[in-house]
Structure formats: C-alpha cells, structure tokens
Description:
It contains 15 helices and 14 strands. It is an alpha/beta fold. About 1% of the residues have low confidence. One of its GO terms (biological process) is DNA integration.
Amino acid sequence: PIKYIFEKAALTGRIARWQMLLSEYDIEYRTQKAIKGSILADHLAHQPVEDYQPIKFDFPDEEIMYLKMKDCDEPVFGEGPDPESQWGLIFDGAVNLYGSGIGAIIVTPKGAHIPFTARLQFECTNNVAEYEACIMGIEEAIDLRIKNINIYGDSALVINQIKGEWETRHAGLIPYRDYARRLLTFFNKVELHHIPRDENQMADALATLSSMYRVNRRNETPTISIRCLERPAYVFAAEEVVDNKPWFYDIKMFLQKQEYPPGTSNKDRKTLRRLASSFFLNDEVLYKRNFDMVLLRCVDKHEADLLMHEVHEGSFGTHPNGHTMAKKMLRAGYYWLTMESDCYKHARKCHKCQIYADKMHLPPTSLNVLSSPWPFSMWGIDMIGRIEPKASNGHRFILVAIDYFTKWVEAASYANVTKQVVVRFIKNHIICRYGVPNKIITDNGTNLNNKMMKDLCDEFKIEHHNSS
C-alpha cells in the first residue's frame, strides 16, 4: 500500500491526504525480494501476547488536507465568522513585461487585511488577469465561510460583466464570467462596486509584486516581512539624545582623542572622518564650519528646544515659520543636524499659530477640472461620410453636433455638406433649440471654417476653435 501511495501519478481524495501526512516523515520505499527471519515475525504477529494492543491503521485527522498558520484576525476554517458580519474583498491584476500577477485582499469587519497573491504562469490579457484576481479572492472568501461580502475592483469591465449590466462579447471572458457568477451563489449577500485605481493601491501593489517576482513551480518563495523604521539609519537625522549623549558626541571624541565608537565598521569610520572634517573643536565646545567659513556652535537637544522657543514665541519672537526660524538661528551662530525639520515641527505645534493663522481655503481633495461646466455651452461639430450606398432621398453625409457637458447629440443627413448647410444647421438645431452656445469646436474642414461661419460667430458672439 505504501508503494501504491508514493507511486500513484494522479492523487485524489483520501490517497492525497495519506501521502501528505506520510511526507512529513521522509519515508523512502525500497523493494526487497526476501527478508531473512520474516517467517518468525509473521508467526509472532499471528500469536500475540496477552498485553497486545491492536494497531490503529487510521491516520489521525485524515480529513485535513493541509495546515496553515492562522492570523490573529483570520477566522478558523471550519468555524466560520458571524453570518451577519460584513466583509470586504479588493482585487486587482497586473500584466507587464516581466509577467502576470494577481492580488486580492479580504477586509475583516474589524478593518484587518488578509492579503493573497499569485503569479500567473501563462499568457493572458489584462481583463483575464482581473478575472483571475477576482475569482481567487472569491474562492478564498468561500474557504473562510464568509456569507456577506462587498467586492471592490478598479476594472469596470469585470465588475459590470459579473453584475450583468454589460454584455460579454469576448469569447475568452465568457467562461470566467459564468464561473464567477456561479461562485457568488455561495454567499447570502453580495455587492459589487467599481472604485478608482487611486483607491486600489494595496491590491495593485500585490499584483505588481507577484508579476515581477520570479517563483518556481514548487512555490518556494521566501516570506516578505515589512518592518517599520522610526528613525533614519545614520547620525545625519539623529533627533533625540541616545544614552544621555548629544548627537555630536562621536564627532567630538574623534576630534579630541582620535577614537572611534566601539563596534564600528570600516565604512562607518570613513563616514565619521568625513563628517568630522567640517567641524572644529575649541576646548570643550564644538563648532561647525559653514560654507562661508563662519563657525556655528553645536547645541544638543535641550539647548535646541530653548532656542526654538525663544526665537518663535519669546520676548522678541514674531511667530515666524520654520524656514525663517532656522535662518535666524544660523545667523545667530547656532547649529544642529535636524535644525530645519525641528523648526517646522515646532511652528506647526504652536497653538497661537494654529488659531490666528490664515485659513486655508483649499479643498481637501484635488478638484476634477470640467472642460464645460454649463450644459449646451460648448458643442463639437463634425461630419460623417461619404456613405455608400446613398439613402433613398440621395443623402450621403451626416452632420453631427455633440454637447460636451450632457453628451447630447444632434444629427441631420444631407446630400452635400456645404458652408450654407453648416450655418443653417447651427441656427436650426443648436441656437433655436438650446440657445446661443459659448463655444463651438470643429476641425479644419473648409465647409466648417469660412467667412459665413466667421460672420455667424461674430453675430452671436460665439467662440470658434479648431480641434487640431
């Protein structure tokens, strides 16, 4: 039986679970023709002693297909979350020169994020990658036994095709659409929403990472951990006192005793020597050489706080901004590494500056510029034709006008579109119906750019522009 389990090509059902459980013990099967003394072992097996206990041939927990580390916010498989809880799913796909990747994020009711990502090892289009990402996220949600879910994606085609609002014309996308709809029947309540790409950055980052990351067939990829660094790597941005020593302690010790900090590498020593070349030590006071060879006294954090308080809101303080504060202290002959950033932070924390400062009337989000903020104020006019065969009334051209704001279309057919026809069309179909427009945009055609058109625009004070 063990040989059958290890050598079977297609594994299904219980055989697959047995092989997965046995693979933990690194068992290797070797065939032997005869074993000396095996008759004795068979005889003892058929005549057990009194304290014999039968062997249990059933594997424990054989219904478990695989094991996985559980996240603190992820529900246990088999238990399932609250059926009334509302979950979220965000998906995205990416196709570039390096390959194709998909990413999905399940958002728990508490706001935690459970990421999923995969690299597609086959050629596909952008729409197929979006469908693959959506289906992967839905399958993971089904495994978590989620019942109520909101699905978000930046692909309007995938969202609207699954909802049934758009027709699926591409033959390769129809199976994806049908399979996605079939998966949605596992949920009690599903809502699909289209979101802009700016609001889908996390799923887009997962998809881009998986498309550019080289993985092998065994999926043996290292774990990517993201750490939070609260301070920069070196002394250039030292903002606080460490071990009750000022930020310039190492530089001072090097200039005074030619000593390096313990445990420093050759690269760190080279950097320290380069930094120390711009400092000057006079007895116990350290000075910084400015670009104009002016010596600036180096101060620690406590002295820097007193200086910022005095310059900003002291006896002669005028509550200047951070840049002005830093310039004043430089002219006064003081220096520390994070002077400008500390001054900006101090000015922003000032209570009086926040109360009496000028109000910022900027909108909280970027404005969407509208090219035509009024309905029927700007029209675009163009001609379609020649149409063959011509209509029964002899018309071969169509003159079309579209309003830029409402997208309303006015059209009429003519046998020939002359300059007289264009002027009559503007008067009858635009001015008489919707009022005098503010602007008309046409191409460089002679029937749309002529003296009659110019006289019409001058008469009604209409701006005439060419699109190219």
